[in-house]
Each structure stands twice: as structure tokens, then as C-alpha cells.
Design a protein that fits this description.
Elements (H helix, E strand, L loop, with lengths): L5 E6 L2 H12 L2 E6 L4 E5 L5 E6 L10 E5 L3 H10 L6 E6 L2 E7 L5 E5 L1 H7 L3
């Protein structure tokens, strides 16, 4: 079986995206390549998210990213208190129970936790 190791997103400003994913999702900087306008960000499972600046072609968000957090409702409250705008508060969505927001380039970001998903996420 294959194992996902990394994902790469085209972004308008690699530094803005780097800072957003560190501050709002809790990823850590694995390494940066300023000459390539790219940052490698790692999650708790060791999966790397590359944010790579590009202007040609223009950024066209074409995927969503879903992150497991310890407590989706607490994470939502904490981020809202810091001024983060969400597309939806924690609620039952088509994919289960969680909250959604978008990153600086318009990629849809889902936040969820295992306990809420089991208790509230499935029909």
C-alpha cells in the first residue's frame, strides 16, 4: 500500500501561506527554499505540505485539506478570538462534523476531531 508523504500547493505568496499554516493549523517549518519561493511545512504525522509561490499559471485552488485537531470546537473558538474568519462553525457537513475556513489563496480547509466526528458526524 502507498503512503502519502507530501502535498504541494501553488500559492501567490509563499511567506504569507507559510505563516498562515503555522499560526492557524499548527504546522511547523521543516525547511525553506527562498530562491525557489517554497516552504516545507510538516504536520504531527510527518506529512509535508509544500507551499510554492507561482504566478504562472495563476493560482486556482483545486483541492481541500482536512486537518485533525484535538478539539474542533475549542480550536474554532480560539481562532475566532484571534480574528480568523470561518466559512462554517463546527457543525454537521457533507463530510462529517467539523468547521471550515479558507487559506489566503482560497483553498478550503476542514478541521475536525475524532470524538466529535464519532458522536456527531455520521448519520
Amino acid at each position: 500500500m502507498a503512503k502519502l508523504n507530501h502535498v504541494s500547493l501553488q500559492v501567490r505568496d509563499w511567506k504569507v501561506s507559510r505563516d498562515w499554516y503555522v499560526a492557524h493549523v499548527g504546522l511547523v517549518v521543516e525547511f525553506e527554499s527562498p530562491e525557489r519561493k517554497t516552504a516545507a511545512l510538516q504536520d504531527a504525522a510527518g506529512i509535508t505540505l509544500f507551499v510554492a509561490e507561482t504566478t504562472d499559471p495563476p493560482v486556482q485552488p483545486s483541492c481541500g485539506l482536512f486537518f485533525a485537531v484535538d478539539d474542533v470546537e475549542e480550536t474554532y473558538r480560539r481562532l475566532v478570538a484571534r480574528g480568523v474568519t470561518f466559512l462554517s462553525a463546527p457543525q454537521k457537513l457533507f463530510w462529517g462534523y467539523g468547521a471550515e475556513l479558507s487559506d489566503p489563496d482560497g483553498y478550503r480547509i476542514g478541521l475536525w476531531d475524532e470524538g466529535s466526528m464519532q458522536a456527531k458526524g455520521h448519520a
